Amino acid sequence: MYYFALLQTPQRELTPEQGQAEMQAYGDFHAREHSAIRGGDALAPVAEGVRISGGADAPLVTDGPFAEGAEVAGGYYVFEADDLDEALRLARQIPAAQYGAVEVWPMLYWNAPEQPTTGQDWLALLLEPAGSVTEPGSAEWDAGARRHAEFHAAAGEHVLGGAPLHPPTTATTVRVRDGEVLLTDGPFAEGAEVANGFYLLRAADRDEATKIASMIPASAVQLRRLAGIAGL
């Protein structure tokens, strides 16, 4: 089964030595668990991001930074694991779990990119109010899937990959503090937006990426450029 791990991190200022040590920690993680890592990258600064709300018919575009909380999305992974316990074992090894959090979501399926992603590509994280997320297999979910198929057909080669996520009741947040693993199960706080899917998009620049993401049938889309570090 595939799992989406979203890294939520506080804004930090690192010395060159600290930055090098963190890169080494990620390198060590990749070396240990490369057989389970199916995708991922760091995200460019949130100030370069875009939030799109209002739906595809009347999109409202807001430039970053737009996060209200202390943590913002700093990267993502796609894992292939036998079960949730195995996915959480992987997530707690991610360096970001030591000072931020890693949200782990089961994916319904994984449309993997056919080529490596680069720093010219974008993560479009689809957001919905927690109470509006539909169950897979329901009539509402099937209707939404048809709208996404229409978006995919319209966007064409700009869509590199992506996946729908299971409802927030299946998500788990992983934190590691002083060597202790802290797990928090969904659902999340009432009224909060939750992820229910994502796309990987290829575009010439932010304007084109925003235009493509505005077509996505979602209550809101957080659009973030990939840093192009992982090459996965």
Question: What keyword list fits this structure?
Answer:
Alpha-Beta Plaits, 35% strand, alpha+beta, 232 residues, six-stranded antiparallel β-sheet, single chain, 22% helix
Can you give a write-up of this model?
By secondary structure, the protein is α+β, with helices and mostly antiparallel strands. It has a single domain, classed as Dimeric alpha+beta barrel (Alpha-Beta Plaits), CATH 3.30.70. Helix content is 22%, strand content 35%. The chain has 4 helices and 12 strands, in the order βαββββαββαββββαβ. The strands form 2 sheets. The chain has a 6-stranded antiparallel beta sheet, covered by helices on one side. A 6-stranded antiparallel beta sheet has the order 4-3-12-7-11-8, with helices on one face. The longest helix is centred in the first third of the chain and has 18 residues, at 16-33.
Short description:
This protein is α+β, with helices and mostly antiparallel strands and 232 residues long.
Question: In terms of topology, how is this protein built?
Answer:
Layout: E1 2-10, H1 16-33, E2 37-42, E3 50-53, E4 60-63, E5 71-80, H2 84-91, E6 101-106, E7 121-129, H3 139-155, E8 159-164, E9 172-177, E10 180-185, E11 193-202, H4 206-213, E12 220-225
CATH architecture: 2-Layer Sandwich
Number of domains: 1
Helix content estimate: 10-25%
CATH level 1 name: Alpha Beta
